[in-house]
Amino acid sequence: MIPVLRPSYTEKIKKDLCAVLDSGWTGFGPKTIEFEKKFAEKVGSKYAIATNSGTSALDLCLKAYNIKGGELITTSMTFISDAIVGLWQDMDITLADIEEDSLCLDPESVVITDKTKAIITVDSHGRLAKVDGLRKKFKGLIIEDAAHAMYTPGAGKNGDIAIWSFQAVKSMPIFDGGMITTNDDNIYQKLRGLTWLGIRKSTYERAEGKRYTWDYDLPSTDGIKGYMTDVQAIIGLGQLERINELCAKRRAVQAVYNDAFRNIKEIKLPMFSATCQYYTPQVEKRNELSDFLAGKEISTSVHFKPISEMTAYRKYVKRPLPVTDKVWPKLLTLPVFNDITWEQVEYIIKMVKNFYE
Fold it and tell me: Residue 256 has what pLDDT?
């Protein structure tokens, strides 16, 4: 079965991982600190704070800015994390509509009220969201969810703060993990403690020297246990070294798919993505095509079933979502990952063509 997405790890990454396991220190420590520094340099940010997931990163951003209550606006076409973190802060959620081609939050669909405290916008499938359009309407906190956008030029520079994800299917996969990037000194200092239940000095820092320093203070009660470990970070360092290579392969697959499907009237090609986080054309008879390909040993998926379609979140649809409702029943994710072979790509193309012929 050809998987729809699959991470890959080099022999060097595996060797480095074993070295961390043998070191006796696998929690937050020197490799996580090194990963933060190199990641910040890579994306052009002053600070980076590593977390155990992209979801934790989103939650910590709201906490760092003291957001409680009020309204959170986010896109309907995303994973549930972008909405649920608002509920954790006792916020009311409003799901807004998307642009048909980019699948990003449409600023024209966003209605700001006196209750609006934050917007989480998503660089959907690696395409940059139109934060400038949101800024014309809203002067409050805008979080850029760049989970799909490593390494899209300009990603992480558009909101007040940005988050990233290294979950296993992302373009820079670890097995899970996240990152927050910011240029704000005060926010960085707050986040440093918030990732460890409010403790400002990490266990690694307190273990330096001749003996372990047990004494520490808790100036805040808002933190979570959300820090990254060196086990995750050592994989992240290895993937960071090859991110351009990883994205180049995805873009190459994207180009071959586009050339092959360009003249099939039942297929609308996806907008270009620098990461090709997912290859998601809009297709006629989506479910039938998915079943047909499964019978040919080809996995597919849908990115995403909108949050607005989830039973627990339908009450957060305050206004019509005509573009979301139109587009998502046609989206189908075809396999694209670093180790996919060109023989597999040609086979997938052949089977898609056979279905429509």
Answer: 98
In this predicted model, what pLDDT tens digit does every residue of 94-150 receive, in sequence order? 999 999 999 999 999 999 999 999 999 999 999 999 999 999 999 999 999 999 999
The total number of residues shown for the chain amounts to: 357
Alpha-carbon gap, residue 248 to 318, rounded angstroms: 40
Residue-number span of the structural domain to which 326 is assigned: 243-356
- pLDDT of 205 reads 72
Selection from 121, 120, 125, 176 nearest residue 148 by Cα: 125
Tell which of 192, 207, 241 closes a domain: 241
> Most distant CA pair in the chain: distance in Å?
73
327 membership: H or E segment, kind and range = helix 322-327
Name the region of 197 (left: φ>0; alpha: ψ -120 to 50; beta: rest).
Answer: left
Q: Which token pair is 260? A: 């092959």
Give every residue of the chain whose pLDDT is below 50, as ranges: none
Give the gyration radius of the chain's Cα atoms. 21
Domain boundary residue, one of 241, 271, 298: 241
Q: Angle between the 342-356 and 286-295 helix axes, to the nearest 10 degrees?
A: 130
Regarding whether 282 and 233 lie in a shared domain, the answer is: no
CB of 166 closer than 8 Å to CB of 174: yes
